């Protein structure tokens, strides 16, 4: 039974001694919290819903920190239940403390940790319970948790590098737009009043900018409202639809540099997941299924799903890779060598490292190339506005005479 649509509730209650007690609880509705408190012999005073625990609430950093800390505690020789209890008691976030408390309770009742984590699909992606299940079967739970943490950290590090490279030009564009809007709506109109008071003809370039400034002042709020409503409608109604996401990602895969970034990132994540699952003792098909659930790009997700189907039909992985244009020849060649030599995990590790290096180099190189172009763009925009405002000053003396 999975636990979805959870909310964090904060409650106050009185115990048998009349002492006031406070706490938090995860549940889908207040009635369940009420019943839980009464089962504990508490008299509820107030139950307040704090926040809905959607998938975005659970951050990768906190998830990775939990699994790494669990690995560390297990490596010191502490039992699983005691390790989980320590993490639950010491966690600074109430939602995580509630989750881990429930995990401790179910593990104490005899449930495997992997089975308990499956009940929280929004908190723990599919690869977490899958790898932990292998650790439970092989008796190497600490090592599996550590390898899982390392693999997830590598994926997050790569994603941050790519996002940083893409975020820089966006920030510059926003700053340039804000400066342009400020000068057109606040600075330029004041200059225009001064110019017009002399009844002198303004330069053509200045006239064009003043006309643009008037248009923005009169119609800008309406345009901003339309853009805001359109973006809100798109974000809430169209973007969540899989069809729209598929079309968006297909369009991005047609852009040369963006296509490479997406390709390197998805392939790195695929091969890192396969390395982890292979070394944990999972079958190749199970590893592909775990990779499919962790990849966000729908085109690569579908391609990995087709690989799983072809492997189930008895096709070797290197031949299955041939049928999809999303997997370059290098992948097919190294996978074939790995399958024939019996060192598939080693070759998969090489592929993961190569794609991670390519993604990092491309992202850093793109940032270095875009930086001077963005500075030039800002210089042209701001410089053009300054020239337009001060150009009439050169004729101001003649106008005054």
Describe the model.
Helix 7 packs antiparallel against helix 8 and helix 11 runs antiparallel to helix 12. This protein has 401 residues and is mainly alpha-helical. It folds into 3 domains: 47 residues; 65 residues, Type II secretion system (T2SS), domain F (Receptor-associated Protein, Up-down Bundle); 258 residues, Type II secretion system (T2SS), domain F (Receptor-associated Protein), CATH 1.20.81.30. It has a 3-stranded antiparallel β-sheet. The mean pLDDT is 86. Helix content is 73%, strand content 6%. The protein starts with 6 loop residues before the first strand and ends with a helix. Strand 1 and strand 2 form a beta hairpin.
In short:
The protein is mainly alpha-helical and 401 residues long.
Comma- or semicolon-separated keywords:
Receptor-associated Protein; 3 domains; three-stranded antiparallel sheet; 16 helices; 73% helix; 6% strand
How many structural domains in the coordinates? 3
Give the DSSP E fraction (strand runs of 2 or more residues): 5-15%
- Proportion of helical residues: over 70%
Note poorly predicted spans: none
CATH class of the largest domain: Mainly Alpha
- CATH homology-level superfamily of the largest domain: Type II secretion system (T2SS), domain F
Number of helices: 16
Helix and strand sequence: EEHEHHHHHHHHHHHHHHH
Question: What is the CATH architecture term of the largest domain?
Answer: Up-down Bundle
Keywords: Cell inner membrane, Cell membrane, Membrane, Transmembrane, Transmembrane helix
Main location: membrane
Membrane topology: Multi-pass membrane protein
Domain Type II secretion system protein GspF: 66-189, 272-392
């Amino acid at each position: 039974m999975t636990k979805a649509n959870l909310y964090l509730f904060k409650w106050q209650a009185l115990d048998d001694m009349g002492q006031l007690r406070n706490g938090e609880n995860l549940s889908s509705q207040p009635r369940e919290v009420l019943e839980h408190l009464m089962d504990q012999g508490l008299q509820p005073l107030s139950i307040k819903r704090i926040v809905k625990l959607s998938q975005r609430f659970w951050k990768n950093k906190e998830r990775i920190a939990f699994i790494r800390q669990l690995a560390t505690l297990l490596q010191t020789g502490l039992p699983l239940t005691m390790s989980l209890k320590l993490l639950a008691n010491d966690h600074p976030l109430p939602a995580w403390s509630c989750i881990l408390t429930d995990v401790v309770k179910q593990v104490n009742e005899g449930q495997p940790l992997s089975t308990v984590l499956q009940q929280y699909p929004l908190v723990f992606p599919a690869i977490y319970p899958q790898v932990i299940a292998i650790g439970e079967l092989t008796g190497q739970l600490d090592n599996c948790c550590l390898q899982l943490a390392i693999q997830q950290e590598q994926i997050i590090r790569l994603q941050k590098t790519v996002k940083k490279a893409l975020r820089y030009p966006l920030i510059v564009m926003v700053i340039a737009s804000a400066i342009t809007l400020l000068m057109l709506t606040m600075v330029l109109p004041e200059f225009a009043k001064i110019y017009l008071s002399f009844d002198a003809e303004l330069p053509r370039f200045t006239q064009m900018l003043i006309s643009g400034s008037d248009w923005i002042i009169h119609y800008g709020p309406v345009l901003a409202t339309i853009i805001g409503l359109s973006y809100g409608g798109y974000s809430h109604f169209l973007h969540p639809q899989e069809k729209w996401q598929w079309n968006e990602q297909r369009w991005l895969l047609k852009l040369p540099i963006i296509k490479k970034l997406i390709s390197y990132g998805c392939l790195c994540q695929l091969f890192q997941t396969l390395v982890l699952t292979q070394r944990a003792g999972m079958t190749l098909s199970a590893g592909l299924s775990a990779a499919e659930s962790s990849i966000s790009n729908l085109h690569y997700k579908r391609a990995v799903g087709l690989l799983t189907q072809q492997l189930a039909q008895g096709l070797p992985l290197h031949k299955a890779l041939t049928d999809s244009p999303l997997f370059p020849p290098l992948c097919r060649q190294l996978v074939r060598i790995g399958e024939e030599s019996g060192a598939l995990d080693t070759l998969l590790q090489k592929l993961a490292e190569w794609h991670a290096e390519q993604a990092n180099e491309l992202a850093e190189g793109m940032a270095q190339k875009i930086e001077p172009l963005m500075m030039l763009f800002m210089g042209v925009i701001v410089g053009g506005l300054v020239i337009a405002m001060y150009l009439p000053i050169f004729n101001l003396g003649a106008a005054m005479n």
